[in-house]
Write a structure and sequence with these properties.
Blueprint lengths: L4 H5 L2 H4 L4 H7 L4 E6 L4 E4 L1 H6 L5 H4 L10 H17 L3 E9 L5 E12 L5 E10 L1 H15 L9 H18 L3 E9 L1 H8 L1 H17 L6 E6 L2 E6 L6 H13 L4 E3 L2 E3 L2 E9 L6 H17 L5 E3 L2 H23 L2 E9 L6 E12 L3 E3 L5 H7 L2 H22 L7 E5 L2 H6 L2 H12 L6 E6 H5 L6 H12 L3 E7 L6 H4 L6 E4 L1 H4 L6 H16 L3 E4 L5 H17 L11
Parallel strand pairs: 11-12, 14-16, 16-17, 17-18, 18-19, 19-20
Antiparallel strand pairs: 1-2, 1-5, 3-4, 4-5, 6-8, 6-11, 7-8, 9-10, 13-14, 14-15
Helix pairs in contact: 9-10, 15-17, 22-23
Length: 568
């Protein structure tokens, strides 16, 4: 009988009659084993015996992997061992997945090193297998966290951009269009602020689930943070495939969400950037979708828009305009003109309203509508508003000193929505008054109607600001009245001095019989609340005459047409 070369190598008198080697092997937590060139086990430690489901090392000796593992797995192990013996090179740290007898997934790292006799011939090998299931589980979790949104489980920006990059590489080969849909939730901030961040988070999770229901398994839905979601559609055959996703998304999100007794309604605006060839970078396609989203929101929200080249041109102009506004602040290119407000009774000037203009170095004098919307969107309106306030207070102080004996009229300036809601307006106005020396009763501030009427039930902070300003002697004017939806029952809560009827209502005076009645009603409302009235944009003698008639109509004619129902 031919002696196994490993018999001599592992003979007891060559090791230690006390069994030191076996004790050492059994003390190790990893699976340790020795095989001969035929793949038969010669030695096994206790850990490996248990892993094989055997009761002792003797039970395993002389058997191979085919006696313990499925055939496919045993053949894979045998292939590795034959490569080791033929090449003489060890196999180090090979990671393999397996499923144990209970059906649980396990991961192992295996190292196998060839064993040689005195002549250097490979006569077998020693193997060590370590269970790395916990490590792989942790790696998988960390990898998922690195590429997925922690709240919704959707792909994050990193994973989305990676898939978009690969999609652009494949588009020419497939010759099928693709599209990126960029969306956010309309008025999400209102929901988040009013119902709390927990409800806001649950809403985002609910939205993500509905979005996934609207796409195919091969499409990618990602969350970029906040309420921004992005979808990658590949192989949509034609560009109308994008609308076949956008339509159900806008529809499915109209159904209410229910959270802790609250019925929450939400809508989404979507920008769609199609691509038919791999031109440009992934960031370009994403930017195009974002521009289309911006256009959708400007058109009224709750809708979608496709990107076209004009949007890119418009965005570039907007960027140049924003850059120009920053330079204009540095170079002091803004100018303030003053428009008188004249009493309808005696034609005297009662105040002077500040009107900003931009002395553009190339385009000349620009009207507010040409640059203020961009200033509002970019946040520069706050800095511009502070500059105007300082200029107006300084000019008002000069007029107070120059015409002290004639009771100079107030100076008046507008307060933007951002200034009113996001800054310490009271502190800023107080500072400007102190620097200029203008007394508070020489200043009026105009606040847009929409700012006061938006979410009127949570207007305690707004009311506090107005009260503090009025205590300084400042007149408070509600601007552009009649252009936004107003809950009239809330108007009485605000400490206002003036109601300013929007120009759009004044210019129509005389065109329809109802116009006089509407303006007259506004005058009556203001009088009933103890406010004065400013009519904006009187440009003709006819308009002035009709305005005087509207005032007279309220005072003399309307009361005779008021009827009432007595209590029964």
């Amino acid at each position: 009988m031919t002696q196994n070369p490993l018999d001599k190598l592992f003979a007891k008198d060559e090791l230690d009659n006390s069994g030191l080697l076996r004790n050492l092997m059994d003390s190790l937590p990893d699976d340790i084993y020795v095989k001969d060139t035929n793949g038969q086990y010669v030695l096994n430690n206790l850990s490996h015996v248990k892993a094989l489901g055997a009761s002792s090392s003797e039970e395993v000796a002389g058997k191979s992997d085919f006696d313990f593992y499925p055939k496919e797995l045993a053949e894979r192990y045998r292939t590795d061992e034959q490569e080791i013996m033929s090449s003489g090179r060890p196999l180090v740290g090979k990671e393999e997945r397996s499923v144990n007898q209970e059906g649980n997934e396990r991961w192992h790292s295996t190292t196998k090193v060839p064993l040689r006799d005195e002549s250097g011939k490979v006569v077998g090998f020693v193997g060590m297998t370590r269970d790395i299931t916990e490590q792989k589980t942790l790696e998988t979790r960390l990898e998922h966290q690195a590429f997925h949104d922690s709240l919704t489980g959707l792909a994050n920006r990193v994973l989305f951009m990676n898939r978009l990059e690969h999609a652009l590489v494949r588009i020419d080969r497939r010759e099928e269009p693709m599209a990126v849909l960029f969306m956010d939730l309309d008025n999400f901030k209102v929901i988040n602020d009013s119902l709390g961040h927990e409800v806001g988070d649950r809403l985002l999770v609910g939205v993500s689930r509905r979005l996934k229901e609207c796409v195919r398994p091969e499409d990618t839905v990602a969350r970029f943070g906040g309420d921004e979601f992005v979808i990658l559609l590949e192989g949509i055959m034609d560009l109308s495939g994008a609308t076949r996703v956008a339509d159900p998304i806008t529809e499915v999100l109209t159904a209410p969400f229910h959270f802790e007794g609250h019925e929450v309604f939400v809508s989404t605006s979507i920008g769609i950037a199609p691509a038919t060839k791999a031109s440009g970078e992934p960031e370009d396609l994403l930017r195009n979708a974002d521009l289309a989203l911006y256009r959708a929101k400007k058109k009224g929200k709750a809708q979608y828009r496709f990107f076209d080249e004009s949007m890119g041109t418009e965005a570039l102009k907007r960027l140049e305009l924003e850059s120009g506004l920053r330079k204009a602040l540095e170079r002091e290119e803004f100018r303030v003109y003053y428009q008188p407000k004249i009493s309808i009774n005696d034609d005297k000037i009662v105040s002077l309203e500040a009107l900003i203009r931009w002395e553009h170095p190339e385009r000349g004098l620009l009207e507010p509508e040409e640059f203020l919307p961009v200033a509002e969107e970019s946040g520069l309106i706050v800095q511009i508003g502070e500059w105007v306030l300082d200029e107006v207070c300084q000019q008002g102080r000069k007029w107070q000193e120059r015409f002290a004996e004639h009771s100079p009229p107030r100076v008046c300036t507008n307060v933007s929505a951002r200034e009113f809601l996001q800054t310490d307006l009271v502190g800023r106005v107080t500072e400007s008054l102190q620097k200029s020396g203008l007394r508070g009763h020489g200043l009026s501030l105009e606040v847009p109607e929409g700012v006061l009427m938006d979410d009127p039930e949570s207007n305690v902070e707004k009311l506090t600001k107005l009260t503090k300003l009025k205590k300084l002697g400042i007149h408070i004017v509600i601007d552009d009245f009649g252009t936004a939806y107003s809950s009239l029952s809330y108007l009485k809560n605000f400490p206002l001095n003036f109601l300013k009827v929007d120009r759009s209502l004044i210019v129509r005076l005389g065109e329809e019989p109802e116009d006089k009645a509407i303006v007259a009603a506004m005058i009556g409302l203001a009088k009933g609340l103890g406010w004065a009235v400013t009519a904006q944009g009187v440009e003709t003698e006819e308009q002035l005459a009709l305005l005087r008639y509207a005032q007279k109509l309220w005072i003399e004619d309307l009361l005779k047409d008021v009827v009432y129902l007595p209590f029964e």
